[in-house]
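Chain X:
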Amino acid sequence: RLPDPLTALPCRPDHASAEVVLTDYVAAGVFDHVELESLAVQEEEMYELSLLVGRLQFLSHPLSIEEDDLAAQLVSLCKEEETRRTAATTHVLNSKLQALRREYKQIREAISTGSAKENNYGINNQEQEDIDRRIDARRVACLKEVVALRKERDLAEKRDADLIHNIIRTWNELQVVRAKQGFTSTTPSLVVYKEERLPEDDRLRLQEEAKEELREMRDMHVEEQRALQRAYEEQQQLLRSLRRDASQPQEESDAP
């Protein structure tokens, strides 16, 4: 529960009352660097920090009405939207995603066409297998980075859309409250500008994005199946090794 803002008693305790003061009152003064260093050494002493407050902003108080709460929410949402728009979070994530997708396509095309082996003449099969394994490992790592970055980009876009939706919803609620009470006690006002966009361009962009996401999901599913297959083969090999080790003592005991 918040205190009464109209109370006649001061919130700060009086220094003359020794019962409520834990430290001795010392008037403000000017200290040089030597005195500050000497004070820092005395860790056992207690000091009082006095702050001069020039402005207070209440998000909520006992006398606030519904309009005040909605106006504070609207201002907070608009500041968050402005911060995200200035930082261009979604644009930066989308640029990184496009760069990673180009790299993944280049690696995948190099593996499928065999261009990664064109400049590897004069090396033996073992070295070629090591090179192929490193290239495939980079392809898998790049694919995982693409999927993770795409999810992060989608969350950022969803957050931007939710912010716009919440701003408009809060503004509509604020207008309803102002009309209902018959007066306005807060200053926030909202102006929305409609952005002109071509529906055909948006449709093509969404189609291309859906194709890319479907291809990435398919490749990720193939990699997960390969990982499960490798784990299964390793378990089978370990099981065969254990069976072979368990049968060796019995064969030696049976021998004459």
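Chain Y:
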Amino acid sequence: MSDKPPPTRMNQQVFKGKKKAAVGGFKLLKKKADALKAKFRDYAKAIAATKGTMADDTATAFFSLTQAEYAAGDFKKAVLEGNMVAKVRVTSAVDNVAGVKLPVFNMQDTGAVNENQSLGLVGGGKKIAASRTKFETVLKNLIKLASLQTSFVTLDEAMKVTNRRVNALENVTIPRIEGILDYISRELDELEREDFTRLKKVQASKEERLKEEQRLKEEETREAMEKGIKPKVMSVNEDIMSKFESLDGDEVLFK
């Protein structure tokens, strides 16, 4: 019992407040865990769908690159020798899901002019443009997949922490508080029973004392009557102040 507080009304109210707060926190965390679980399933479905299309898109993009090289020749060296200006940049944002901040990656077009427009003028220009479009699609899906995968991992960690807190409240904190409240209630009930028993004993002793005093008075009255002495009984309407003589207006000085 050393880890339990003293069984007082104040501690009972304190632990009732703690139980109310713990139950409220448990309900909120349970709702948060359900929301995270639903979002987790959505991310898993999106990742599976994106990975399913990535294989076909990548294969199609590299096949179009092979067609472009066949039609326009080896233009990789010309691309590498050109001015490498980023046409696409990756920006990051934050998505808030039930209080959990998830990173989101987006593809942003910088508006830079492609300096390799002269590629394919001799031949294969359409194939190079088609290959560029297909690789842009692959890049877009790759950024989307990276965003989904990063958010998925972050969400998984947040779900583990939330589930641990829910389980701790449900299986440890709330039962412990309820046990302490039961202990305090039992002890207070026991104290009330002790006080009630003590009061009954005090009341019984008072009644016995009154009965004893009444019995003694009756015996004294009986003995007085046997001796011929009439017991003096003060009337209810008797004026107590009439026993005292009047001072006839004389002043009484107190020194």
